[in-house]
């Protein structure tokens, strides 16, 4: 039932429009009430409300879009949506239960799990990255690289096509040093340097170091030292 103040004032009594089985048509006029408007369903092109309080039930849209203009949508409950399209989304603490974050062409670019973030793509950083845990690795070797204060420990093999620059090694180094054509030109092991090639001195050797220089016959070419 709808109470109409204008009709009530004219008739001097409270009048109601009651419709049990058919529709009530108000043409192009307005329906105004100072009380409560109760309806099972409202079908309209546009409904303009100053304040809407939804105590129970749902706001459901089957065919189009629910637009709030430049206003805010506030809820103290749960906001559920199949898809949210927005220019900017500002939130406090966010919890993603599905686990995946991505774009339309790559929906699982980021995968979230307990204490884990998996990136199924390329990581590009425009700033300076900091690693507080200290270890970098793969699933089969989690501490392949270990970072500490001023030091990088490699628990594996370093392979590089070319290293340009000056390298300073303060600790122990074992293995082979060479070129693309002669990979084991120098071999380091247990305090011994083996030269599998020619040894040429182009600078003078101080006398104090000359007695410890010796040449052993081998498969490589050995040349006598040249002193300036």
Structural summary, described in words:
- With 228 residues, the chain is mainly beta.
- It has a domain of 56 residues.
- Helix content is 3%, strand content 21%.
- It contains 1 helix and 11 strands.
- The strands form 4 sheets. Strands 3-4-5 form a 3-stranded antiparallel sheet, with no helix packed on it. The chain has a 3-stranded antiparallel sheet with strand order 6-7-8, with no helix packed on it. Strands 9-10-11 form a 3-stranded antiparallel sheet, with no helix packed on it.
- A hairpin with a 2-residue loop joins strand 4 and strand 5.
- The chain is rod-shaped.
- The C terminus is likely disordered.
List keywords for this structure.
228 residues; mainly beta; three-stranded antiparallel β-sheet; disordered C terminus
Would you identify the regions where 5 or more consecutive residues have pLDDT less than 50? 10-14, 219-228
The level of helicity is: under 10%
Strand content: 15-25%
Report the radius of gyration as a whole number of Å.
40 Å
> Looking at the structure, what is the overall shape?
rod-shaped
Note the run of SSEs as H and E.
EHEEEEEEEEEE
Termini separation comes to 116 Å
The overall pLDDT, averaged over residues, is 72
Number of strands: 11
Strand order of the largest sheet: 3-4-5
Task: Tell me the number of helical segments per DSSP (H or I, 4 or more residues long).
Answer: 1
Q: Helix/strand-derived class?
A: mainly beta
Largest sheet: 3 strands, antiparallel
